[in-house]
Design goal:
Layout (H helix, E strand, L loop, with lengths): L2 E6 L10 H9 L2 E4 L16 E4 L11 H14 L2 E6 L9 H10 L3 E5 L4 H8 L13 E5 L20 E5 L5 H10 L7 E6 L7 E6 L3 H5 L6 E5 L6 H4 L5
Parallel strand pairs: 1-4, 1-5, 2-3, 2-4, 6-7
Antiparallel strand pairs: 7-10, 8-9, 8-10
Helix pairs in contact: 2-3
Bound molecules: S-adenosyl-L-homocysteine (SAH).
Length: 243
Amino acid sequence: MGRVYLTGAGPGALELLTIKALRVIRKADVIIYDRLANPEILSEAKDGCEFIYVGKADSHHTLPQDEINELIYQASLKYDIVVRLKGGDPLVFGRGGEEGIYLKQRGVKFEFIPGITSAIAVPEYAGIPVTHRGITVSFRVVTGHEASKNKSQIPWENYKSDDTIIFLMGLHRLKHITEKLLEIGKPKDFPIAVISKGTWAEEKTVIGTLSNIYEKAKDLPTPALIVVGKVVKLHKDLSWFEK
Ligand code: SAH
């Protein structure tokens, strides 16, 4: 029985991969990867390594999670070193925990290899610090996916504080997210940013307010994340990556 490495690939730029991740990628017999992992990473694999892609460009058409769990398990019966490669960090909305539990229940040894999460690194590439002395003492990372109109699981009332809020998977819910934040009392001119393709050469940041960001940013390409908070104002001084 093989060993499975539930591995973070970082937010996009190849060099934001950890040395440990690179080491297991180079010795992997099979790499099971999805859409967000930079495909250039695969060229680091050894000759004969098998590649299995489990995510299509549209996140709604990825292989169902239970099938991915089973596929990883089956791979561990066949190969010595299995790398399950995921964008960012495997445990930040990465479902790595579910995969770990599935393997544990079947007696398969696994390790987590943390990755640099897009939640922090993408704002950083856009010159937006998630915390800043004198502006905010905390940040929260939220799934925008749950922000559906009817059955939102997000405790919006808790978000009245000055925390920086980072929404992942939220671009298709941008309008609803801004409406909710206005509803709980944030001002119309409250700063918000959308960052598309962060850390990639095509990175693009759009800065706006709760009342105008939807019109400005709704057509940006994915992946994209949303940053809400006064730290967004620092972008004008700290932007360094985008030309
Ligand atoms: N485990 C990942 C997050 C998975 S959820 C991590 O730690 O980064 C997928 C969401 O992450 C996307 O919908 C998007 O909101 C965000 N994301 C991932 N990579 C991104 C990138 N390069 N630029 C902008 N957003 C990104």
